[in-house]
Amino acid sequence: MRITIIGSGNVATHLAAAFKNAGHRIVQVYSRDMQNAALLAYHVGAEPIDNLNQVNPETDIFIISVKDDAIISTAKTLSKHQKLIVHTSGATDLSSLSAFTSNAGVFYPLQTLSKNKEVDFFTVPLCVEGANETITFELEQLAQTISNHVYRINSEQRKILHLAAVFACNFPNYLYSIAQQLLAKHNMEFELLRPLILETAQKVQDHLPAEVQTGPAIRNDKNTMAIHLQMLNGEPEMKNLYELLSQAIIKNI
Amino acid sequence: MRITIIGSGNVATHLAAAFKNAGHRIVQVYSRDMQNAALLAYHVGAEPIDNLNQVNPETDIFIISVKDDAIISTAKTLSKHQKLIVHTSGATDLSSLSAFTSNAGVFYPLQTLSKNKEVDFFTVPLCVEGANETITFELEQLAQTISNHVYRINSEQRKILHLAAVFACNFPNYLYSIAQQLLAKHNMEFELLRPLILETAQKVQDHLPAEVQTGPAIRNDKNTMAIHLQMLNGEPEMKNLYELLSQAIIKNI
Fold first, then answer.
1. CATH 1.10.1040.20 holds for B159-251
2. What pTM was estimated for this model as a whole?
3. 3-class secondary-structure state, position B7
4. Distances in Å between the alpha carbon of B22 and those of B145, B149, B251?
5. Is A195's pLDDT higher than 80?
6. Alpha helices in chain B (DSSP H)
7. Which of residues 41-100 of B touch A (CB under 8 A)?
8. Which of A188, A48, A18, A26 is nearest to B127 (CA)?
9. Which residue does chain A place closest to B201, by CA atoms?
């Protein structure tokens, strides 16, 4: 397919590379910042542009991968070309696009992507939704050229998924950070905890989390929890989190 | 070395197997339950016993890997043999043993171990502490026969490490569980989130967690957070956690 990438952030970068690798043609890469546009465009053999009026209408799909609050205005500008327009946002309804065009869809990669970290895109779950069955099918076909994990997910489900991802990714990472701070304060390297963190994530790759829950709270080991809370006396925020998370685990035993 | 394993739980099982593989001789395996003792003893070519009076004093080290609250009484019984005694508990001071013998130490594997899940023990961080430098050195040497990650960690540090592990392992696993419940309620498979969970843990293998924090809270994206909180209206516990964790992330930006 002929693909136009609108945006040059993490998602845009990884998607453009995956499409290019799969043999698609990236027509143009747009970014407000010409340097960013040029950098990504160079990598994927596309033309860089920094003005939406320079968009080449000879394309099959516009993939809008910009900040959530810029999606609507971008879609509005692109809609005059009457080509398929999709966004890549977990938190944005399909209706944000379908207000301007019936030729709309969503192409949401459910992964934490960083520009400077390679990822095997075939392992990334891709959630697609189209304004009608023809579009959904077309997006599904396109998704399968770059990922082995393609799901049909509607806007309501995608919002839940986006929320669940906060619990599954953003919050655990913050807890890793608390652990790292505790170690640093007592002259220990974060290195000590890295294997534990990795194994914890690996365990739920073939189990449900509830099946492999461990720790003082699930054992209702009041003695250990009391000691831990006492150790956190100087850290009211950590103590609060320890208490709330432990109580939640105990209640759900 | 000649090693006697006291206990037949997850840690005892993995340690016994690792020692056996490294060429040590497992003399006996003790468990209150003869069936458990026999099962592990059979795997590592040792004699099973279910009574501490049957302990063979012809050994170099007793490794006590029982529930925390049974460590002291077990050590008391074994101390008459005047051999090196160590425990494997993250939450227990060395002094719990040294009350009975000066020939004491700690041998703490910092990993979440399950009997039915193989683990490459050479990747497991092993934290050792001895009642004196000779013992510490001996334990360090022993540890290096089964792990590439051996650390000298004193009792105070080990308590912090144990607390940090709750934040790095037990609590993240519970958050995975919340995410799984959210998905299940909306007819989505946990499968969708597994790659994200794994990648989140992989990212901190060569970064500090604070460097790779993502999500609405770190961006202070009030709009998305408000939508998420509204979606959690029917789940007061999840809502509470969402709020507390987000506030903590925002405060620490």
1. yes
2. 0.92
3. coil
4. 6, 15, 48
5. yes
6. 10-21, 34-44, 71-78, 95-98, 133-144, 155-165, 171-185, 194-203, 222-231, 236-251
7. 68-69, 91
8. A188
9. A198
* Topology, domain A2-153: Rossmann fold (3.40.50)
pLDDT at residue A117, as a whole number: 82
Closest listed residue to residue B235, CA positions, set A156, A213, A164: A164
Q: What is the pLDDT of residue B117?
A: 82
Q: Tell which B residues from 112 to 141 touch A, by Cβ distance under 8 Å.
A: 112, 114, 117, 119, 123-125, 127
B198-251 residue pLDDT tens: 999 999 999 999 999 999 999 899 999 999 999 999 999 999 999 999 999 999
- The pLDDT of residue A253 is 62
- With CB atoms and an 8 Å threshold, state whether B209 touches A173: yes
Q: A183-201 burial, b if ≥16 CB within 10 A, otherwise e?
A: beeeebebebbbbbbbbbb
Put simply, the answer to whether A182 touches B163 (Cβ < 8 Å) is yes
Residue labelled with tokens 């171990």:
B113
The angle that helices B34-44 and B10-21 make with each other, rounded to 10 degrees, is 20
What residues does CATH 3.40.50.720 cover in chain B?
2-153
Q: Average pLDDT in the A153-168 region?
A: 96
Q: Which residue is associated with the tokens 């569980």?
A: B177
ipTM greater than 0.85: yes
Report the 10 Å Cβ neighbour count for A251: 9
From the CA of A82, how many Å to the nearest CA of chain B?
A: 30
Distance of CA A153 to the CA centre of its chain: 14
**3-state secondary structure (DSSP) of residue B218:** coil
Q: CA-to-CA distance for B63 and B106, rounded, in angstroms?
A: 9
How many Å apart are CA B155 and CA B153, to the nearest integer? 7
Partner B contacted by A34 (CB < 8 A): no
B175 touches chain A (CB under 8 A): yes
Sheet holding A104-109, edge to edge: A47-49, A25-30, A2-6, A61-64, A84-87, A104-109, A125-130, A149-152
Is residue B244 packed enough to be buried (19+ CB in 10 Å), middle (13-18) or exposed (0-12)? middle
| Whether A168 and B195 lie within 8 Å, measured CB to CB | no
Taken as a whole, chain A contains a residue count of 253
Q: Which helix (H) or strand (E) holds A116?
A: none
A211-230 residues touching B, CB cutoff 8 A:
212-218, 223-224, 227-228
